[in-house]
Structures are given as structure tokens and as C-alpha cells.
UniProtKB/TrEMBL annotation:
This is Acyl-CoA synthetase (AMP-forming)/AMP-acid ligase II. The chain crosses the membrane at residues 563-594, 615-636, 656-678, 690-706, 718-734, 741-758, 764-781, 788-807, 813-833. GO terms for molecular function: acyltransferase activity, transferring groups other than amino-acyl groups; medium-chain fatty acid-CoA ligase activity; phosphopantetheine binding. Pfam families: Acyl_transf_3, AMP-binding, PP-binding. The keyword Ligase applies. It comes from Nocardioides alpinus. InterPro entries: AB_hydrolase_fold (IPR029058), ACP-like_sf (IPR036736), Acyl_transf_3_dom (IPR002656), AMP-dep_synth/lig_dom (IPR000873), ANL_N_sf (IPR042099), PKS_PP-bd (IPR020806), PP-bd_ACP (IPR009081). GO terms for biological process: fatty acid metabolic process. Belongs to the ATP-dependent AMP-binding enzyme family. Residues 465-541 form the Carrier domain. Keywords: Ligase, Membrane, Phosphopantetheine, Phosphoprotein, Transmembrane, Transmembrane helix.
Length: 849
């Protein structure tokens, strides 16, 4: 049976693949608080392409959801180059493709373009425009070769059946390195519509604030996105501008299709179910939204210009056959090496491998012909994965896949961890999406072959049963350090309420698992993703014969905290005169406040709960120590124990001033938390974190100058209102994401610090440490020194708190070095003693998940 749709009209004779510049001043892109017109975007793209020179090139682009990456991609696509798009932030995959294809230009997110030669090293076929991986995130050298006409025709077809107009505006819920994500961009550009560019997740409150404020009319999602929406407050939201929600990237259960379709109709938007593959430049079929409730299992009809038919010779069931697609969007062919880039069209039809039937003119997929699976929208070669498992883990291993997980069946439990790591790394799925089952005997068919249908039934049964989550060694580190036995593979350090103290200890533990250093932003990555990255890192190191580096890479903030507390104690015992460490610790605290508390997902209420947890973990150990000292030694009074010393008007230094740093940190953190948890300000901070931080810094600066002017007096430099700007400077530093922003923050830091103490050496320590924190994310140290820095940094609060009662008698006896060592040891020991309480307080405030 064949069903044909009419070919949409295309703009011919234009040089760009996606003709959109003629839409002129109509909005094309909304990103980072600014709007780019179609003409403006075209100019940016042309300027970028011009920097690569006139020769046609192979351009590798990291497909991040940011303006720089998008412009680089369009510069390659629109100006005659060949774009090879890879996921951003996945160095192993990028490096594998760079090694395999030797691109002429490499465009990495956040870095200058690497133009590697004056002309191309490759013979590039004239029709070739785009190379995409068909293997998800595995780093496989097998790529899909797509032509200019493939991209243009499919973009026009999608814009046609979705009836897109310049009034439409999509928001990017999918990554741009994914074929589906690119198709959203392409179709909206050719229709003169616009795209809201964001990397936020659909579970983030700010995603929906952005969608509402920008008037987004369409949203695209894979089945996993719909699971996230179902578990969030999406159905309670009022999104009057939304008119369309599209779904592809895997089968959505018929019940879910029917439910979302009905819900959408009550809210004024249509659900459009679609079917496609990278080999078809994205879309092959779509289900008209008015048919979704009556035919929820169908993929619909061919896209405009496409043809679908069934090859019934491959299946014995009447009316069932392999789904075959033809159309102008069918790929040129595959590439496995640079030599293949010179090849032209090698296929005119796409055999999908899906078994389907056609009823009432609508196609419905009923199974798979070959051994491929699709999990989280990633297509997985199950045969290849199975072969690797048999070679490396268990010679009896078998693999099947559902829409939600890869299921591995092994003969014994000894290879469970190895199988999980191998499959997660090979397939690019989270570790929690790999289920390993011990099955002593694999079920066989009557011909003696493995019965994959029976294994599939076992996999489906396992997914519906209440099996407790698998514990992993990496997860155990999170449980141990954070005291969160409820930590799941999908949680990140920030999700679990981690603070600056636990950050240091956990980073030290995790460093052993990453031979090449911890991944950037590890504290916001899920346990499952880190587990996969660790497995890939270890596998890469093994494959290349790499040895563990002789120097350890350490977060600069960890090193600075260790140095700052050393300077504080060493100056107090009169070993060295390096004052300023406590003020530097305030800036580091502000940096970590933005990095942890303000980066936590969820709404204002979730942020408040997270922040209160951190504040309680700071206050409770401090109150216990101060209370004990007050009772036993009489050194502190009630105002110090309650952190209200500044309410007593005293300009003379006495013992009550000793804990000024902790008192100021408590009140500044509480104020910052209260400010950012007000719903209106919470949304403003989420929408533009850097400008919000600058606004708070302006307020803190006014408070400082209103109190003391340029130079602070001897005790004024230790009062909360006067020193708050150091904390907010750290906050702004954490939110500065571009070179221009970092230069601005550096300038402000210098202007506010120089002259504040009237002591150049103290100002140099504070400002120098701040600039290192801002510009140098990591430092390399010998492993032993790195571990020592981690211990000191993790105990810095407790060392500061306790050293006042430790060093005086030893210093008076003429033993400054012993005074220093004892102060550090007591602080570290106190931190270990109160650690269970520290964790319990955090759990009690944040609540069990």
C-alpha cells in the first residue's frame, strides 16, 4: 500500500539552504534577553562564515543551545560548508569524531573557532550539507550524510503540515545537536517564525516563565519530556500563547497520546504526534491532531512530498510489512570515514526496519524487524552492544530494549557493575536506564535461537514491578557525604542540598574516579551521568594506555579556602602577617551561594527549603560550640551565641568580635536567601542571573559607602552591612559567564577593594584571591597537597570557629607552629564529630524526597 502527499512549494535558486533573511525585521531568535531579527541573524551568520575563509570546509560544531553555537552551525549550513554536529560538553565523543574525520574547522562551545588549515583536507560532494550521528551519543564514526535539498525540503514539509507562520515561536526543549531539535529550528526559520533559545529543562520553573514572557506558541518533546511534564505542575499552568505541542523521538503510549490530546484541547493547543529518523532528515510521518484521540497508536500519514508503503514480503502476517519511505528528505547515504564524504546519492528509499500496518489510510508501527532499540530518543544497535558484552563481560549476555531502558541478561551477578558501565557508556543512556538481570538460562525458540520476544516480556515485567533502585559505588559516596540515603541516580549534588563544605569532601572522593579530572559543572550533573562519564573516562584511559596524571586538578575555590583559613590562623598566631583571609572567605561563600543554592532546580519554595538547609547546617554547629564555650569558659555572651553582637553598640575590639565572620555570613546568607525567594524576584533572578547579581551588588555598595565611605575603621571592616559587598562580589563572579562580564566584575572588585582596608597587603590578598576564583576554574597540585587542601577547605568553618580557644595558650608559651597545627587539628576533629548532626540538620530542613 502506498500513500502520497503533495510536494510543498520551495524557494528555489537561493544560496542559503534555509531561505529566511527575506523576512527582514521579523524576530528570528530570542536569547539572553535580546531579540535577533531574521536579517540580523543572517548578518551574524555571514560574519562568522567569513572568518573561515572562502574555501569550502568540513566544520565540526558543538550543538549547544546558545547563540554562539547556533550561529556557527548556520554559518556552516547556509554558506556552502559541511556541518558535522556533535553534542556539547561530551569531550570523548567530540574527540573520537575529530580523530575519525579530521575536520577543517572545530567550533567548540565557549571557545574561539579552531581553523585548522587554510583549505579543506577532504573531497566534499557538492550536494553534501550536514552530517549527523545516528547512534545517539556513542561517538560512533558512522554518520548520516544529508544534502542541501534534504534539509530544505524537510524543513518546508514540517512548516507546511504544522501551518507555521511568522507569528509562531518555538521554545527549545530539545538540544540542537539532536535531529529533532534541529528540525524545529529549520522549520521555524523557513516559515519566518522565531525560536526561543534556552538550555533550561521543562521541569525548571524558569523554563515556563521564559515561555510565558516570550509568548512561545510551540513546544517539542520526546516521550521522556512528557514523563517529566506529567510529574510536574505543567497541567496547572496558564500558557495562553501555546497552540501546538509536537511529539517524536520514540513511541508515546496510546493512552498517553489520548490523554495529552484531550488535555491540550481544553487548553487551546493541539498535540501533533510525528514519526521520523535521522536518515530522513527528521520527519517521515505526522498524525493530524484531530485524529489523535481516535487513533492514538498511529503515526499518521506521510509528510508533504513523501511516500510511505509496506513491504509485506518480510512478514507472514497479513497486512503487516516493513515500513518503507521515499521522498526528497531521504539521506544520501552513510559515512564511516572521510573518504565517504565525496560520495553522492546511494539510496532513494529508506527501509525503516519498523514493521507496520495501514488502516483507514493511517500507518501504525507494530514492531521492529531488526535488532535496534530506541531509548530516550537514542537509537541503539543492540547486536553491537551484545557483542561487546559477550567479549568483555559475559559470553552468555543478551540485550533487549524498551522505550525506557536497556535490559541486559547475564548468567551470573559478577558482571553486573561492568555490564552497566559498558552499556551506559556505549549507548549514551543514563546508568539508571540500564537494567541488568541475572538469568542462568536464556529462553530459546524452537530453532534453538535466543527468544528475544520472551526476553522482551521479562523486561516489560521488570519495569512494572516494584524493584528497589540499584545501589552504585558512586551513589554511595553521595549517601555517605551528604547523609542522603534517598539519593537516586537522577539526583545531582545541587538537587540533594549540597553545600560548600560537602562539596569539598565529595569532590575529593569523586576525583579518584576521573583520571582526567572532574567534569565541568559536576555538581549540577546527575549521579547517573557522572557514573557514565566515569566509566567512559576510565575506558578511554585504558584504551589509550594513559596513566593517571602526576598532578591532581583541584577546584580553585577549594585551594583558596584552604589558603584563606591558613592565612587567618597563621596571622593570629603571629607566624606571618597575611591578613584578609576571612574577607576572601566571604567572597568564596557568595560564589558558592550562587553555585549551589541559586542553581538548585525548582520554584521559589524549593529554593527556600534548600537555602534554609544550608543556613541551618552553618548555624547549628556554631551555636553548639559558642554555647559550650560560653558555659565552660565564659568567653562569649548571649549576643554572640545568638549572632546579634552588632545590635550592641561597641567600637572597641573584644572577644565578642572574634566570630564576626560567622555572624556576618549568617545574616548576609539569610538576607540573600530571603531576597531571592520572593516569587517576583525569584523569577527575575532566574531570567537574568548576572544582571540581578549586579543589582544586588549596587545595593550592597550603597550600604557600604553610607556606613563608612571609602576606608573602613578598625571594627567597621568586620560589620555585616559594610562587608556584605564581598559576598555579593562572589555571587556576581559565579554568575559571570562571558569574558566581558568577568572583566566588568574584575573592575568592580578592584574598585571596591582597593582602599577599603588602607593596608595594601591585605587588599592584595583579597583581590588576588578573588581574581583567581573568577578567572581560573582549576589549579593542578601534587596529589598529597590536593588532598590536604581538600581537608582544610572542608573544615575551614570549624577551624575558624574553634581556633580562638586553641592557639592563645600555645602562642603565649612561645610555640607558634604548634599553635597553628593544634588549631587546624581541633577544627578538623570538631568537623568530624559534628558531621552526623550537620547531615541530620540538612535532611530535617530540606525534607526527604
Amino acid at each position: 500500500m502506498t500513500v502520497t502527499s503533495p510536494q510543498p512549494a520551495l524557494l528555489r535558486g537561493t544560496t542559503p539552504v534555509l531561505a529566511h533573511a527575506h523576512f527582514g525585521d521579523a524576530p528570528a531568535l530570542v536569547a539572553d534577553g535580546r531579540v535577533l531579527t531574521h536579517a540580523g541573524l543572517a548578518r551574524l551568520v555571514a560574519d562568522r562564515a567569513r572568518t573561515w575563509g572562502p574555501a569550502r570546509r568540513l566544520v565540526l560544531v558543538e550543538g549547544a543551545n546558545d547563540v554562539d553555537s547556533l550561529v556557527a552551525y548556520l554559518a556552516a549550513l547556509q554558506h556552502g560548508h559541511v556541518a558535522l554536529v556533535v553534542p556539547d560538553g561530551r569531550e570523548a565523543q567530540r574527540d573520537a569524531l575529530v580523530a575519525a574525520y579530521d575536520p577543517d574547522v572545530v567550533c567548540t562551545a565557549g571557545a574561539r573557532d579552531d581553523v585548522r588549515r587554510p583549505a579543506s583536507a577532504h573531497a566534499l560532494h557538492p550536494d553534501l550539507a550536514l552530517l549527523l550521528s545516528t547512534s545517539g551519543t556513542t561517538g560512533s564514526p558512522k554518520l548520516v550524510r544529508l544534502s542541501r535539498d534534504n534539509v530544505a525540503s524537510n524543513a518546508a514539509a514540517i512548516a507546511d503540515y504544522l501551518a507555521l507562520t511568522p507569528a509562531d515561536r518555538a521554545i527549545t526543549a530539545l538540544p540542537l545537536h539532536y535531529c529533532y531539535g534541529l528540525s524545529v529550528l529549520h522549520s521555524h526559520l523557513v516559515a519566518g517564525a522565531s525560536v526561543v533559545l534556552t538550555g533550561l529543562s521543562v521541569v525548571d520553573e524558569c523554563f515556563w516563565d521564559l515561555a510565558a514572557s516570550t509568548g512561545a506558541t510551540s513546544l517539542a518533546g520526546v516521550p521522556h519530556n512528557f514523563d517529566l511534564l506529567a510529574g510536574s505542575s505543567f497541567e496547572a499552568r496558564d500558557l495562553p500563547s501555546l497552540r501546538q505541542v509536537t511529539q517524536a523521538g520514540g513511541r508515546l503510549e496510546p493512552d498517553a497520546v489520548r490523554r495529552w490530546s484531550r488535555f491540550g484541547r481544553t487548553r487551546g493547543w493541539d498535540l501533533v504526534v510525528m514519526y521520523g529518523a535521522t536518515e530522513a532528515t527528521a520527519r517521515m510521518a505526522w498524525l493530524p491532531p484531530d485524529l489523535a484521540e481516535d487513533h492514538p497508536a498511529a503515526i499518521g500519514v506521510a509528510v508533504p512530498g513523501g511516500h510511505l508503503h509496506l513491504d509485506e514480503a518480510v512478514d507472514d502476517r497479513p497486512g503487516v510489512g516493513e515500513l518503507v519511505y521515499t521522498g526528497p528528505n531521504v539521506m544520501l547515504g552513510y559515512a564511516t570515514s572521510p573518504a565517504d564524504l565525496a560520495r553522492g546519492r546511494e539510496t532513494t528509499e529508506l527501509r525503516t526496519g519498523d514493521l507496520a500496518r495501514c488502516t483507514d489510510g493511517l500507518f501504525e508501527v507494530v514492531g521492529r524487524r531488526s535488532r535496534y532499540g530506541k531509548v530516550f530518543g537514542l537509537r541503539i544497535d543492540l547486536e553491537a552492544v551484545e557483542r561487546e558484552l559477550r567479549d568483555a563481560v559475559d559470553r552468555h549476555a543478551r540485550v533487549v530494549a524498551t522505550d525506557r531502558a536497556v535490559h541486559v541478561f547475564v548468567a551470573s551477578g559478577r558482571g553486573t557493575a561492568s555490564a552497566t558501565a559498558l552499556v551506559a557508556g556505549r549507548c549514551g543512556v543514563p546508568a539508571h536506564a540500564v537494567r541488568v538481570h541475572v538469568l542462568p538460562e536464556v529462553p530459546l525458540t524452537s530453532t534453538g535461537k535466543a527468544d528475544y520476544a520472551a526476553l522482551g516480556e521479562l523486561a516489560a515485567l521488570a519495569e512494572t514491578s516494584d524493584v528497589p533502585p540499584r545501589a552504585t559505588t558512586l551513589r554511595a559516596d553521595y549517601v555517605r557525604v551528604l547523609g542522603r540515603p534517598d539519593a537516586g541516580d537522577g539526583h545531582s549534588f545541587v538537587d540533594l542540598g549540597g553545600d560548600s563544605l560537602s562539596y569539598v569532601e565529595l569532590a575529593t572522593r569523586l576525583a579518584d574516579r576521573f583520571p582526567r579530572g572532574l567534569p565541568a559543572g559536576w555538581h549540577t550533573r546527575s549521579i547517573a551521568e557522572l557514573e557514565r562519564l566515569a566509566a567512559a573516562d576510565a575506558a578511554s584511559a585504558t584504551a589509550t594506555g594513559a596513566v593517571r596524571p602526576r598532578w591532581a586538578r583541584v577546584d580553585t575555590t577549594v585551594t583558596l579556602r584552604a589558603l584563606a583559613i591558613l592565612f587567618v590562623v597563621a596571622s593570629h598566631v603571629d607566624l606571618i602577617g597575611l591578613e584578609g583571609g576571612a574577607h576572601l572567605l566571604l567572597a568564596l561563600a557568595g560564589f558558592n551561594f550562587a553555585r549551589f543554592q541559586l542553581s538548585a532546580p525548582g520554584d521559589a519554595r524549593a529554593r527556600l527549603r534548600q537555602g534554609m538547609s544550608g543556613l541551618a547546617q552553618l548555624m547549628v554547629p556554631s551555636v553548639l560550640w559558642v554555647g559550650a564555650v560560653a558555659l565552660l569558659l565564659g568567653s562569649y555572651d548571649l549576643t554572640t551565641a545568638l549572632f546579634v553582637r552588632e545590635l550592641v553598640n561597641s567600637s572597641e575590639w573584644d572577644d565578642q568580635w572574634q566570630l564576626w565572620f560567622i555572624q556576618s555570613l549568617v545574616w548576609i546568607t539569610a538576607g540573600a536567601l530571603a531576597l531571592t525567594c520572593l516569587p517576583v524576584l525569584h523569577r527575575l533572578e532566574r531570567r537574568d542571573p548576572f544582571r540581578f547579581a549586579l543589582a544586588v551588588l549596587a545595593v550592597a555598595t550603597v550600604a557600604r559607602f553610607a556606613e563608612v565611605g571609602l576606608r573602613a575603621g578598625h571594627t567597621q571592616r568586620y560589620t555585616t552591612l559594610v562587608v556584605a559587598f564581598f559576598f555579593v562580589l562572589g555571587w556576581a563572579a559565579a554568575r559571570a559567564s562571558t569574558t566581558r562580564q568577568r572583566v566588568l566584575v574584575s573592575t568592580l572588585a578592584a574598585a571596591l577593594t582597593i582602599g577599603f582596608f588602607g593596608e595594601p597587603h591585605r587588599e592584595a590578598i583579597v583581590l588576588g584571591g578573588f581574581l583567581l576564583m573568577l578567572w581560573l576554574p582549576h589549579v593542578s597540585l601534587p596529589p598529597l597537597l590536593a588532598r590536604a587542601a581538600g581537608v582544610l577547605a572542608g573544615a575551614s568553618l570549624f577551624i575558624y570557629l574553634t581556633h580562638w580557644q586553641v592557639y592563645p595558650s600555645l602562642e603565649d608559651a612561645g610555640h607558634p607552629w604548634l599553635a597553628l597545627a593544634a588549631s587546624l587539628a581541633v577544627g578538623i576533629a570538631y568537623g568530624r564529630v559534628v558531621r552526623p548532626l550537620h547531615q541530620a540538620v540538612g535532611r530535617a530542613v530540606i525534607g526527604s524526597r
